Amino acid sequence: MFRDSFKWLLFEIGAGYYARKLATGPEAELRREFLEHMVLPAARAHARETAGQFRVLDVGCGPAHVARALAKLGYDVTGIDRSPRLLRIAGRLAARQKIHLRLERAPSDALPFADATFDCSLATGVIYWVEHHLKTLREMVRVTRPGGTIVSLDPHASMSASRMRAYSVKHSLSRRDARKLSRWATVASFNRQFSEPELRHLFESAGLVNLVFEQRMGGMAWFSKGEVPARA
Q1: Which residues fall within 8 angstroms of residue 144, CB to CB, at 6 or more apart?
Q2: Mean pLDDT of the chain
């Protein structure tokens, strides 16, 4: 497990590549599926219950592909990341699309927001990557209102480069997209890959209830969701 300071440097150096990598292909499709199944139902339920705008925090937003997709739907979206280069890319992409989006530089384990600021906090490819993953999840819980939703996308314990290659062949992916998935599997092998008991323990330790864990991408990725309970 590399330290967060080293990982931050990697993202600073490779910001442009990372932004392009996630813009298209199977990882982009996976994130669209993630939004449709894990975030938008909460947004629709919120709209039925209140006239207020649905407030979303994207933790480790990177180039803000996910955050921009949500902002484009009319939600009140804030993205945070440690990488200045990725935030500049995110800002340029949002301006180009004429999308209103708040972007702030901050570490995931020390969020600069008051308690219960958001209706939903999400992290795509972040919890498995950061050094202090439980502290990050607890911060997401803190800044999300009681009854709000916490969702994350992370690698399953079964993810491997060989399984990704088999998945790419089965789904007739291009060489470029197959390489993207193999790189993700390689990165995951040097960080964290979760079994369901491990994820359940992590989410429960962060204080979340009504947990849902779904396997996607041939079982190699997790969609995880929990509800913030009422404050004691």
Answers
A1: 57, 116, 117, 118, 119, 120, 121, 150, 228
A2: 92
Q: At what angle do helices 65-72 and 26-34 cross, to 10 degrees?
A: 50
CA 226/CA 231 separation, integer angstroms? 15
- Encode pLDDT of 61-117 as tens digits: 999 999 999 999 999 999 999 999 999 999 999 999 999 999 999 999 999 999 999
126-181 tens-digit pLDDT:
999 998 999 999 999 999 999 999 999 999 999 999 999 999 999 999 999 999 99
37 and 15 Cβ atoms separated by less than 8 Å: no
**Amino acid, single-letter form, for residue 94:** A
All structural domains of the chain, each given as residue ranges with its CATH number in brackets, are: 4-227 (3.40.50.150)
Query: Which contiguous run of DSSP H or E holds residue 82?
Result: none
pLDDT given for residue 4 in this prediction: 61
Residue 186 makes CB contacts below 8 A (sequence gap 6+) with 161
Q: Which two tokens stand for residue 9?
A: 């440097």
